[in-house]
DNA sequence: CTTCCAGTTCGAGCCCGCTCGAAGTCAAGC
DNA sequence: GCTTGACTTCGAGCGGGCTCGAACTGGAAG
């Protein structure tokens, strides 16, 4: 029945810890429009809901996979426009997914270069005692 | 008959094109100590040998795999000290290799998040006709 | 000879993604 | 009722990795 203190929301510090970002970054993300304005308590302090935290988590995955902040902002804008942008958001994810796959293929190749180099070093070391 | 002009070396522009960096970056890499001072022609223009180009190529792979410039510099310093640093260089590569593997594992996980999200969008779109 | 172009050096500037300092507010614990 | 400490806003600053403009030089083509 949620009578009163069934809040379960997090302060900026707690949210930051949960998602592995700093409080600075959380406020900055909000300011940059990556996060819709977060609810406040009576004293004006941010309260992060589960949904907010889940959204932040998703953002961290997008960032980690190399999505530029400007694209994340675009995505956030789409999300704020509701269901009618579902298709656009899916397209955005699919395009990003393809870039991540490409990136991984690249890394696999680069890893090969590293391995060959390591091998060359091993052989050279052997040769020199 | 190309008597003497068997140079086979590249100008900064040609080298840049070969390795996929700009001429600005090539000069900057040299200035930053990522590349040992490159040979010059009679007019003071840089001439990149095959070895130079191979070295640059290796640097691009290190960069692409996320090695910071400062580590590349350290590696370049080791390389300039000759054979006695072979072990250190191999260790550096092995450590980097491990980081790249970790990065790839992370990307694989993140890709999963993307896939689930794409799926969720698909289902939501279906639900809304 | 002149024009052109690719090169040279130097220091300044840029974009990105945070990161932080300052000054102030508020609620809780002693 | 005072202190503590986590919060607030604002604008400035930073580190990384280039990127560029300015002023100049030298070889080659017409």
Quick overview:
Chains A, B: Keywords: DNA-binding. The structure is a homodimer of 129-residue chains. Chain A is mainly α and 129 residues long.
Description:
- The structure is a homodimer of 129-residue chains.
- Chain A has helices at residues 12-19, 23-31, 50-64, 69-80, 86-127, and strands at residues 39-40, 46-47.
- The first copy, chain A, has 129 residues and is mainly alpha-helical.
- Chain A has one domain: Multidrug-efflux Transporter Regulator, Chain: A, Domain 2.
- Chain A has a two-stranded antiparallel sheet with strand order 1-2.
- In chain A, a hairpin with a 5-residue loop joins β1 and β2 (46-47).
- In chain A, α1 packs across α2.
- The longest helix of chain A is centred in the C-terminal third of the chain and has 42 residues, at 86-127.
- The interface between A and B is medium-sized, with 32 and 32 residues.
- Chain A binds a DNA duplex (30 and 30 nucleotides) through α2.
Defining key terms:
disordered N terminus; homodimer; 129 residues; Multidrug-efflux Transporter Regulator, Chain: A, Domain 2; 5 helices; mainly alpha; DNA-binding (chains A, B); MerR-type_HTH_dom (chains A, B); 67% helix; DNA-binding; two-stranded antiparallel ribbon
């Amino acid at each position: 029945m949620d009578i009163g203190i069934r809040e379960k929301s997090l302060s900026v510090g707690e949210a930051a810890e949960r998602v592995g970002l700093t409080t600075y970054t959380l406020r900055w993300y909000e300011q940059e429009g990556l996060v819709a304005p977060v609810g406040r308590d009576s004293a004006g302090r941010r309260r992060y809901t589960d949904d907010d935290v889940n959204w932040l988590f998703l953002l961290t995955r997008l960032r980690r996979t190399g999505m530029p902040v400007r694209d994340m902002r675009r995505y956030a804008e789409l999300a704020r426009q509701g269901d009618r942008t579902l298709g656009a958001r899916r397209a955005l994810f699919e395009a990003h997914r393809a870039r991540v796959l490409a990136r991984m293929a690249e890394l696999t190749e680069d890893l090969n270069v590293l391995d060959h180099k390591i091998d060359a070093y091993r052989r050279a070391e052997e040769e020199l005692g």
